[in-house]
């Protein structure tokens, strides 16, 4: 278990030999533990070593999958979206190319039910609710964690409770080896699609308690690639076979980020600023007689955010978070064969959260008299407030403003082998219009929605890392500004879309400190989800292509997620690891009994999907292989042959080598702890090795074989 | 423990492999036949139905119903033309038969697909950007297009045009600039009448019909009708019937009648009109008005006597069937059966209903996505 090894690493510096091996295992492996909790543990350890023993169990109550450290960077990925494909239960909608839109759908509940958090605070999009994961770089990330339900820790902001599943992206926190007070990392990626991607990361220890981190990155790609469409006759002879070059997929993007991290006795804080700007072509659908498109998009995303966590008195912790974000988007269609469009959108968001945790009984209990209790009982009371405004230069636009208040009461009990959590989230939404239009005279009515959740985890044998768990959670997603107010399409009568999840699962892992076998992990979850009042666009009124958003959909999802992993250490310094994930989903549209779509598998959800990754690490050398499989699907819930989509699968491979220099002499990849050792690493990645010509989304061809080279220098 | 772990992993991988099916070659969609109705023979042999397909899906398809065998054939184009890359194209917008050839306007694919009328085999194509509707007269075809010159100083406003093409050579021989976003087009009384919509100009829709002289192919005048004009069709009493979508606000959708002698609006039908067709003295139409109170579409299926300009009925359907999105309409010139299509939610397959003159559904069949435009095939001598 990741947790155990990391704990040991911290606690026993003497046993370095074991630690090196174990930490390698842990970073190589898919860590399935609640690493966020681990990390906060680590940070607390800096200050108070005593707290470690107080936490008897930090294993997750909820299914979580994480990718981090070396493992994360060993995957051939261009963006967060590429990495998330390795999680089970996840489907990516990928429109292809470096700059193409990539969104995530967790357990077929739809992209709106997945919350995406960046360094602890949610990334919002009040306009359409879609977060494009293709925009987020992997360069300075140290962990990606995906939770089903919600994060296991009840001490968190109210918005952390407000999604059916949550993806946490965590950027690198400065960590300094002994005797060092700065870290510098410079890297360059280059490869297919004309990709050039230089980046720099600098970390400075301002004082022992205050650390600075700054990073910047630039990405440019022309985005062109060959694709091939081929059809055969029923007798097998070629009907047509055509190869073309994907055009208008260029992207230029810059990112700059800076953060300050502070540690205090029984507390910590951080402040960060983020700026991203991009211009890209929108490659569009390939249809008969149209092989290129001209649409373009400009994005400018910026935010500042901060959080402060403090143990005020024994048994009472408080966390305050704040964020302001400013997002601008411009869309241009200059193609004179289509309607000319040049629209700009500007969103503002202000967010504040105060979370309070009370330890009611157990070792750190607020009341001294209850510290003897065997049961650890804690409670969290949290309130968040968020303000959103959308400006657009659309005709008849209503300039909506939204105030949302979230409040949560959550409780957690650890008693012997049982851990239980319960939470209830209240969401109050109030919208106002800046200016009524001829289509929309009023804002949507105020809404107050309660969504409860209950989680259980049971460990039958204290000595075995075997856990049984179950959860039930309700979630809702508010209609977005587009759903409600988009000129002539929006519908202010929309109700929130609701989802209910039932999940039961088992998780087992075992670690060995010696021998060939070092770790085995198996995890399986079965689930049933219902989506009610699903917000879908339906035709309305007279005229062509006029749509209306309505709450008419009903979807049931039955699924199984399975993960497994193994780590071997057959000879000294050689680590072999392999991981598997598999997802079965039956996601059926039960909206209308009269229709051909009734009972059909919903659009783009495969029945079977999965991934395999395998890695070999020996001294400075690492070799990684990954395979992704997405089974047959239909692009519409009318499951007829015309809507059938072929399975697709890609094989990716990467080889990397790291050399460390000690006084200009190569140190055979070994690390010594106390000295500043410049390191240089090289990697070559080859993706889609068998050059499969496939599509994730109808008429959006994906690239065939492609590659990248990476050079990184670390001081 | 080690063995158990290995076994689990092996089982796991086997499971994955077993459950996985591999990619195969993608076969060109074959056509599908279904028997519906009763076989009849007469002046007309059958009809083609053009399915639009939702924008970006490249799923415009062609279906055919044969009267003599009472056979409905789905997806006839890709079966007859399997070697055409990416098949018929994206968003079919109009379908007409003229002189032994069939012309399908494929809007997003920026072309008119020209086929043989008897077998739907491809002859060639005429490239026209953002093409909309077409009509024929004297060996020439006339096609409306939104993609005219971009005007400087008016927010990229783009005038539309009508192109004249030679049906023998399939070459464009002349163009005439008309209003913004021209839709329906028809030749009557030796002139070309073009319904301008101004659909991209919200809220400043076009309200006029452009009258184009055929002699020198120049716009002669305009006739004021109503906002956002759509279809235009002549009757046999020297009148034009024009549908207006309205401005979705103060001016609702309506049907107007224009007298060709005076070239003025002489009458209107106070009903919303999405689509209509004229057969003999009867004008069949349907329309829906979105009611913001009930959040439902209010529907009308009406018949107007074009001679007397009287509304004969507001509901020619005498059946319990609920239509999700009535879309295309045609009337069988021999039997008087009404063909009505339902486009459903635009992304799932539509339905075609054959409705008898007494208003009962005689038969129904699944079509392609967004079934919309009909062309009857006449027996040739």
Please state roughly what percent of the residues of chain B sit in beta strands, choosing from under 5%, 5-15%, 15-25%, 25-35%, 35-45% or over 45%.
Answer: over 45%
Give the biggest sheet of chain A.
Answer: 22 strands, antiparallel, barrel
CATH topology of chain A: Maltoporin, Chain A
Shape estimate of chain A:
globular
- Shape field of chain B: globular
CATH architecture of chain A: Beta Barrel
Whole-number tally of structural domains of chain A: 1
Give me the CATH superfamily of the largest domain in chain B: YVTN repeat-like/Quinoprotein amine dehydrogenase
Oligomer: heterodimer
- Which CATH class of chain A applies here? Mainly Beta
Discrete helix count of chain A: 7
Count the strands of chain B? Answer: 29
Measured as a percent range, the helix fraction of chain B is: under 10%
